[in-house]
Amino acid sequence: MSVAKKQYKRVTTKSLVEMKSNGEKISMLTAYDYTMAKIVDGAGIDVILVGDSASNVMAGHETTLPITLNEMIYHASSVVRAVHRSLVVVDLPFGSYQSDPKEALRSAIRIMKESGGHSVKLEGGKEIKESIKRILNAGIPVMGHLGLTPQSIYKFGTYTVRAKEEEEAAKLLEDALLLERIGCFAIVLEKVPAALAQKVAESISIPVIGIGAGGGVDGQVLVTHDMLGMTHEFNPRFLRRYLDMYEGMTSAFKQYNDDVKSKDFPNESEQY
What we know:
Blueprint: H1 13-21, E1 26-30, H2 34-42, E2 47-50, H3 54-57, H4 69-80, E3 87-91, H5 101-115, E4 119-123, H6 129-137, E5 142-147, H7 153-156, H8 166-182, E6 186-190, H9 194-203, E7 208-211, E8 219-222, H10 224-227, H11 245-261
Parallel strand pairs: 1-2, 1-8, 2-3, 3-4, 4-5, 5-6, 6-7, 7-8
Helix pairs in contact: 2-4, 4-5, 5-6, 8-9
C-alpha cells in the first residue's frame, strides 16, 4: 500500500531529514535572481541553492573562485524575496571561510542577516571542521559538500569524477560521518561513483543530495540553466536537459530582430 506523501507548506531543514526517513526524494535546483526563483519555487522544488556557480552562469567566469561575498548576498537576497515554500541554501564563496573559523562565522552571519537566506553551504570535510562548528554554534544551519568541490579545482586540476581510488573514497565516507556528527543537516555529493554515493547515503541519517552521484542518494540537484538547455556547450553525462532554451531563445531573438528591421513590430494593435 502506498503511503501519501506529507505536504510541506514551507520546507525546512527538519523537513529534509523527515523526507529521507520517509523515503521521499528531495528535489533541488539553483537560482540566482528573483524571476527564476519565483518560477522554481512555484513549481514545488524543495530546495533552492543560491550557488557560487553564479560565477560561471551569471558572470561568465571560468571557475567559481572569483565571486565575492557581497555578490553572493546580492544574488541570495534577490532569490529570498521570491520564495514562499522552498528552503534557500546559500553557498559561502571561496576565501570567506577556509582560513579562519571567525572569518567563516562573520561570512555566514552576513549572508543570514543581509540576504534572509535559510542556511549556508560549505565545501570540504575535516579540514574545515572548526569553521562549520563555529557557524553551527551560532544557530546557522549548514549543508556540507564533498566529492568534487569546485572551489578546489586548481588543486584537482580537472573536473573529473572524484573518489575512484580506495583512499579518497575512505576519506569521503569518513568526512560524511564527521559532517553528520558535528551537526550538518544535509550533504551535497558531487561527481562520485554511484556505488560509493549510495554507501554514504546509507551510512548517515542526514540527506545526501547528489549531482552526478547516481540514483542511490536521497535527492538530486542540477544547475537550472543547464537543465533548461541555456548552457548548450556543457554536456556532462549526469545532465538531463528538460528544455532546449538556447535554441528557443535564439529563435525568438532572431524573430524579434527581423520584425523590428522589417517594421512589422509594433503593429497597429501594439501601440496606443
